[in-house]
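pls design
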């Protein structure tokens, strides 16, 4: 009996070990093994029969049992990786069910990994199948194609899946074999990349093929073969000729006869095919590139709008195959369409924007919000510079929204793969270059250069090309080392004195000298608000700009963003004397402020009902979150939850306890830390030495507070208040714990998002531990560094805690009661994401400029994941699509009404027309208020003489004829 139990324990232990997630190093080593193995991740060849039996390779499944298929089986290591890390290497389609491969519950991860794997194989000599690709019989192409056909016919029968994931499905059709097809465009780029890696002199042609592909590139490659004949190997010559063959296939003219045949194969011949049939009746030899692009754009959109009217998966697959074929023609002809006038350029942007909808890069509702702008512009003969800048801003948005949709679909999986296979990062760039976003971006860039010239908004950024894509977000100036981060930013340890260029800024960004981002996140995230508040220069740029600037990585530079949004980035050697003088110690000390503590009340050592406080208690009894929410509870009683406050006095009472192993109180330890730092400074210690000492001491304090013993009287008081205020005992109602310090919402410093908020905590012990975690968060490195940048007395920071019951909102976000970067004082800037905690942490949120009479979409949401708040506590993750907006018309009206009431009811000590930063959400269309704070901007940056001097003087009312050449 004991032996059986022991065996059972061993079995369970082994199973548990097998399921343990494998480390990055283990996966890297596994990939190396597969690359050098003649069978790659495969074990052996088998027959897989219809009756679920398996047979040896020379023993086929008999017809009497339904026959079967032959393919490789997987090594145990590959199978274990699937279980432990949800990683699928060397996928064999014929061996997997449609449902498992689609992997909908994991946001289609397995399907996306298949696409990434094909990309890696194309650029890295088979990748994990470097030798295994020659393992005969491992994969049967005819079985893969047959599987692909039935897979798509199955998937495309699902109306909701097609509506919500149109882009992903079209991309999958390019990659998954189903009709003797292949992704020729990707193959062309992969072949040119491999050749450039092997032949350095081929790099210029490779850049041309990737960045500006044209039919004439074939001649470039052929001439290269002739000119380099004596310098290249026979293998290189063979590979170059294969590239030429691929390019000739890619640039082959549109085959009207083939398309007519494809249409005849579609069973449901409804009216939506009429446009295609009319197009095919034209003389294909006399169609100009502009006509061809316009027609194909319209047809692509027509197919998307009407595809659900075709009822069978077979017909839908044929239409999408046709859609992909037409897209290839559009990509070629859009490069051949040359524009000369302003009207032609705007028209081309309009047409290509239409094509982004047809190819899935924009959602239909997103396109409908901007189409009117292009239609109205193209109907006129002239335009003001102000309106032309508005058109340019919209056009730039189309490029950004398109690229961001690609990232939203694949970024999570790419980030995962990059940890063990760095070249995976090129996958998204490859998708962008194989889309209409490439040609659209080039056309918008050309328009941007023209508009910059006539508006005098000229960037001066290290002499790189296509600078019109760069635009300022926050004014300010900085000097320091340039760091270009072309990858996941979360692994980067930032430095206060450096200037960073990110693909996307990390949500917990520590203070930096300056930032530029490809994905700006949203205008009202905590990072953006802190940057705005501190006068940190912040600008948006294109992915191409980032790559161009990567060669300056590590150089000392001067960086400035003007109040009008033009950007300067120059080398240290090019700085003027005026620019050097900006960084004197006297200039940089002007912004330092002091936390007021003269009225702070530390005598209140009982839990406080939020109803009993108002704005006058901010910075005295508690922080502004709790004080202002108490004020809001009085003004908006039905839209604000009940709340409890752990005041400053309770924190101070616990800080007066003796700190273990120090022979002094926690509070004395804290003050001694800052006192010693001043002594070090007076003795000539460097900033780095002083900061290193402070951070080390505060880390010790942080850990000690996490283990501090809470008073029994306080815990009993908390239990009692839970029952009386929330109507239930502690441990039975999930709550938020929000840090709320006296250093937040000062007149010159916002402090937004620096300290900890704990979501949806249920159990009593977790609430108790959470209180200590929130207190301790005031002494983390990130919080300290942001404070240190601005505060003269950071040792006098007191945290209170606001406790409010959770509201499981459908979507949530932030409103600034003024226009930011666009609009005026009476407008509203709103950013919303699905689920709880929306927009504040830098999600790619739905951002709108709401005026009294209009509602302008500044950016759609591109955040694929979100969280909800179950009654059991904690958070639950979900994924979403983007085919519908987050905010509806009723929400917009409620937001306007809320802003109007806030402006009327809330009096501010700051100014009569004070703008506010409001956090709120909607549940079943009911608005819930969670926080309000003054919106603080950096007035010094706004009024800087230097920034004013580099801001262009623009006559916005000047008119330009649309017939003018550009």
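designed seq:
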């Amino acid at each position: 009996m004991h032996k059986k139990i022991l065996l059972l324990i061993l079995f369970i232990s082994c199973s548990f070990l097998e399921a343990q997630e494998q480390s990055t190093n283990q996966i890297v080593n596994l990939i190396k093994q597969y690359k050098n193995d003649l069978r790659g991740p495969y074990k052996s060849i088998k027959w897989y029969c219809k009756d679920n039996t398996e047979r040896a390779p020379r023993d086929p499944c008999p017809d009497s049992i339904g026959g079967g298929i032959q393919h490789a089986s997987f090594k145990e290591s590959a199978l274990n990786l699937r279980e432990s890390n949800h990683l699928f290497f060397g996928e064999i389609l014929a061996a997997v069910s449609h449902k498992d491969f689609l992997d909908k519950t994991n946001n289609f991860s397995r399907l996306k990994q298949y696409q990434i794997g094909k990309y890696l194989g194309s650029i890295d000599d088979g990748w994990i199948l470097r030798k295994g690709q020659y393992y005969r019989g491992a994969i049967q192409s005819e079985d893969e194609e047959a599987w692909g056909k039935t897979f798509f016919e199955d998937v495309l029968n699902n109306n909701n899946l097609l509506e919500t994931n149109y882009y992903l499905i079209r991309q999958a059709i390019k990659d998954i074999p189903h009709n003797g097809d292949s992704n020729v465009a990707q193959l062309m780029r992969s072949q040119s990349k491999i050749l450039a890696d092997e032949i350095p002199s081929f790099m210029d042609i490779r850049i041309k093929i990737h960045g500006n592909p044209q039919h004439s590139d074939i001649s470039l490659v052929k001439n290269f073969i002739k000119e380099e004949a004596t310098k290249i190997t026979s293998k290189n010559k063979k590979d170059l000729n294969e590239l030429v063959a691929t390019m000739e296939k890619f640039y082959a003219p549109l085959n009207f006869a083939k398309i007519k045949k494809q249409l005849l194969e579609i069973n449901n011949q409804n009216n939506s095919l009429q446009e295609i049939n009319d197009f095919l009746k034209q003389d294909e030899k006399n169609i100009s590139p502009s006509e061809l692009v316009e027609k194909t754009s319209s047809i692509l959109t027509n197919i998307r709008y009407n595809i659900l009217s075709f009822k069978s998966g077979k017909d839908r697959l044929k239409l999408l195959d046709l859609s992909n074929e037409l897209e290839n023609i559009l990509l070629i002809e859009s490069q051949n369409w040359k524009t000369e006038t302003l009207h032609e350029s705007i028209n081309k942007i309009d047409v290509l924007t239409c094509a982004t909808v047809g190819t899935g890069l924009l959602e239909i509702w997103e396109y409908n919000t901007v189409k009117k702008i292009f239609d109205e512009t193209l109907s006129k003969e002239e335009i003001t510079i102000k309106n032309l800048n508005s058109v340019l801003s919209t056009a730039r948005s189309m490029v950004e929204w398109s690229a961001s949709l690609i990232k939203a679909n694949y970024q999570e999986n790419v980030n995962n793969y990059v940890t063990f296979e760095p070249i995976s990062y090129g996958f998204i760039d490859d998708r962008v270059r194989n889309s209409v976003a490439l040609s659209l971006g080039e056309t918008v860039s050309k328009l941007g250069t023209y508009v910059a010239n006539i508006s005098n908004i000229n960037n001066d950024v290290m002499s790189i090309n296509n600078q019109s894509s760069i635009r300022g977000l926050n004014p300010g100036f900085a000097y320091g080392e340039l760091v270009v981060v072309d990858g996941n930013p979360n692994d980067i340890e930032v430095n206060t004195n450096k200037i960073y260029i990110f693909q996307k800024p990390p949500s917990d960004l520590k203070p930096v000298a300056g930032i530029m981002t490809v994905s700006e996140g949203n205008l009202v995230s905590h990072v953006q608000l802190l940057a705005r508040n501190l006068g940190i220069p912040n600008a948006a740029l294109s992915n191409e700009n980032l790559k161009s600037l990567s060669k300056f990585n590590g150089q000392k530079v001067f960086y400035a963003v003007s109040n009008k949004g033009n950007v300067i980035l120059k080398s240290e050697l090019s700085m003027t004397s005026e620019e050097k003088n900006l960084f004197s110690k006297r200039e940089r000390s002007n912004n330092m402020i002091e936390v007021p503590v003269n009225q702070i009340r530390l005598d209140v050592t009982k839990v406080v009902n939020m109803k009993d406080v108002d704005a006058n208690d901010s910075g005295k009894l508690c922080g502004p979150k709790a004080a202002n929410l108490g004020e809001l509870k009085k003004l908006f009683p039905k839209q604000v939850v009940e709340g409890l406050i752990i005041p400053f006095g309770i924190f101070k009472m616990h800080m007066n306890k003796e700190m273990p192993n120090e022979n002094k109180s926690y509070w004395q330890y804290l003050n001694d830390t800052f006192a010693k730092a001043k002594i070090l400074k007076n003795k000539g210690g460097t900033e780095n030495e002083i900061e290193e000492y402070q951070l080390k001491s505060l880390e010790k304090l942080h850990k000690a507070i996490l283990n501090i013993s809470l008073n029994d009287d306080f815990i009993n008081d908390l239990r009692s208040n839970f029952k009386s205020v929330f109507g239930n005992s502690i441990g039975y109602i999930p709550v938020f714990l929000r840090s709320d310090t006296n250093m937040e919402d000062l007149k010159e410093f916002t402090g937004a998002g620096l300290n900890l908020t704990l979501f949806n905590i249920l159990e009593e012990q977790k609430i108790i531990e959470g209180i200590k975690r929130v207190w301790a968060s005031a002494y983390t490195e990130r919080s300290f560094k942001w404070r240190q940048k601005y505060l003269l007395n950071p040792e006098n920071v007191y945290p209170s805690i606001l406790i409010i019951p959770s509201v499981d909102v459908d979507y949530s976000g932030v409103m600034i009661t003024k226009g930011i970067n666009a609009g005026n004082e009476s407008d509203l800037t709103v950013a919303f994401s699905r689920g709880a905690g929306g927009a504040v942490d830098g999600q790619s949120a739905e951002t709108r400029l709401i005026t009294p009479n209009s509602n302008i979409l500044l950016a759609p949401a591109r955040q694929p994941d979100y969280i909800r708040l179950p009654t059991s506590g904690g958070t639950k993750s979900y994924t979403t699509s983007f085919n519908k907006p987050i905010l509806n018309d009723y929400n917009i009206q409620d937001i306007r009404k809320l802003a109007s009431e806030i402006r009327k009811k809330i009096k501010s000590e700051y100014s009569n027309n004070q703008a506010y930063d409001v956090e709120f959400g909607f549940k079943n269309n009911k608005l819930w208020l969670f926080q309000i704070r003054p919106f603080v901007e950096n007035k010094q940056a706004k009024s800087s003489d230097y920034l004013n001097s580099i801001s262009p003087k623009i006559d916005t009312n000047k008119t330009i004829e649309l017939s003018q050449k550009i």
